[in-house]
Amino acid sequence: MPPSIPLLDLSARFKKYQPDIQRALNDIFSNGKFILGPYLEAFENAMAQRLEVPYAFGCASGTDALVLALRAIGVKPGDEVIVPAFTFVATAEAVVRAGAEPRFVDVDPKYFVIDANHLPTVLSPRTRAIIAVHLFGHCAPMGPIMDYARDHRLHVIEDGAQALPGAWNNQPVGSIGDVACFSFYPSKHLPAAGDGGMVVTRIALIAEALKRLRNHGRGAGFHHEIGMNSRLDEIQAAVLLPQLHDVDHDRLRRQELAQRYSARLKYLPLTTPTSAHDVVHSYMQYTLVYKHRDALQAFLADHGIASAVYYSRPVPAEPAFSAWQGYFSCAEALSQQVLSIPIHAELSNSDQDQIIETIEKFFVTKLKDISP
Ligand SMILES: Cc1ncc(COP(=O)(O)O)c(C=O)c1O
Predict the structure, then answer these.
(1) Lowest CB count within 10 Å: 20, 26, 159, 355, which one?
(2) Sign of the CA dihedral 255, 258, 264, 270?
(3) Distance of CA 51 from the midpoint of ligand 1 (Å)
(4) The domain containing residue 230 runs over which residues?
(5) Ligand 1 center to residue 148 CA distance, Å?
(6) Which residue's alpha carbon is at the smallest distance from atom 10 of ligand 1?
(7) To 10 degrees, what angle do helices 247-265 and 349-365 make?
(8) Which helix (H) or strand (E) holds 34?
(9) pTM of the complete model
(10) What would the pLDDT profile of 169-211 be if each residue is shown by its tens digit?
């Protein structure tokens, strides 16, 4: 039986946007322009304005956005790119797809993002870039990362796949590093009706490279380099555009839900998420840390409440990354203890109350069965 409270509710979400999307689809099918047309242009302009950057390029996925970004800054085979050990595999996968080597560093236990103190431990003459992942909606420590990158002449790529409406030091996510990547995978802040991504930058030279690379390396009538076929199509742009107007409203609702969770769960023997003073947390996930995580997850499932483990192992512990394995104590501990519970703009207070009451019930009825 599907859970009565799911992790996200896309059909409820899309009801609101259906008339706008339907109108746009009718238009697209009657004008017959499916690739690189007016809806993509309008969406790219709206994203550039929202993120306070001059250049934005829609592409096929968040993973492709990372590959495009790496290639556009000139990463090539033999180069090394620093990535956090605790992230979605796509961050490191893109580095390998660009022909480079991921160099993993541990994260910090409080905010789950890269610990900038570890950067010097992996720096080498081959290091070209750092990918700063804004995990679960919390920004990476961009101050120390940008300082370190400047001192060592490295590029910074923001992986904003999970943090589109967030900010660091009053700057929107995506406007801080040299280039930034977003995903429109359906579970993200801005869900497409399928896959989609975007790469944005403040830097004209990088923008020129991105524009060529996503379109088979084509520019001014020539194919200058081996590029990719990675464009966000008109249909997805038309699905995304009307939602962008509500992205900050939705983030406020997520923040409100996070506050409600934290106010009531803070008395329990688990750790609730928190944010650094200079970060606007966009709560892509609301992630608890609890040592009997599996028992709590099973209890929630028995009561019809969905939850998820993001991520059950550090990326370098995945078989595909065996060439780069290492031991990362925080990433390891988090992967044993994290549990993400439902948080999205469509979640009602009454469903959230039911989730909170079920977690409280777990501690009353089950804790005595679990060894401390
Ligand atoms: C942190 C992070 N980076 C990159 C990606 C890749 O995005 P996509 O699934 O659109 O390829 C994701 C998607 O889940 C992600 O969470």
Answers:
(1) 26
(2) negative
(3) 18
(4) 10-105+113-244
(5) 25
(6) 62
(7) 30
(8) none
(9) 0.97
(10) 999 999 999 999 999 999 999 999 999 999 999 999 999 999 9
